Structure prediction request, 238 residues.
Amino acid sequence: MTHNLFWEDPYKKQASSCLETIIEEEGLIFEKSLFYPTSGGQPCDLGMIEFENFSLKVVNVKKTATGKALIVPDFIPDNLKLGEPAKQIIDWDLRYKHMRMHTALHLLSVVIPLPVTGGQIGSAKSRLDFNMPDAISDKQIIEDKLNNLISNDLFTEQLWITEEELEKKPELVKTMSVSPPKNSGDIRLICIKSKKDQVDLQPCGGTHIKNTSEIGRIVIGKIEKKGKNNRRVNIHFD
Prediction:
C-alpha cells in the first residue's frame, strides 16, 4: 500500500521522510506523506517542509494516478537530492477543521438518507448536494437531528474491504460523483458507530476525527435548489 501517514494517524502534526521523486516544475514525492492531497471534495493540507539548510512552503498537494501525494512547494531548489531527509509540518488548525467538517458531512448523509450528487469541504463551511426533488420543509429539524448525532459521542474507525466485496454491497456508496478510494485493490471505509450500533459506513479517502464530540455544534445554512432534482445543503460551525 502507498504509505499515507494521514491515514495512519490524522492527528500527527509532523513527520520525517526521505525525498523519493522530483518532478521538475511540478512538485516532490516523499517515501511517506503526511500531507493530504486534494481529493473526494476535501482540500489539501498546507504547511512547511524543512530540509537541513532551508524550508519550503507547501502551496498545494495533488493526488497522482498511483495514489501518492505530489507536494507542490513555493519553489523547487536546484540542489535537492533524492533520498534527502526532510520534516513535513502540516497546518494543524486547517487539517483539524477539515477533519471535523468531513465527519459532520458523513452524519448529514445519515440525517438526509438520499443519494449524494456532490460535496465540498471547507474550513469555515461545507456542503452536500442531494438528489432531492422535494424541498425540506423545516431545516431546523435537520439541524437538531444532526447535532443530536454529534452529541452522542460516536467514534470513527477505518476499515478496508476488497473491490469484489464492495461490488456485492453497492448500497455502501452514497456519493454518485466520487469514485471510492482504492489502494492496491482495496477500498477504504469510514465507520461511525456507538459502542453498540453502527450509524454510518461508506467508502472515503479523507481524514476524520476520532469522536463526534470534537465537531462542536453545526448550523444548517442555506438550502439551495441546484436543478430539477438537486438541492444543496450548506453547513457551518456555530
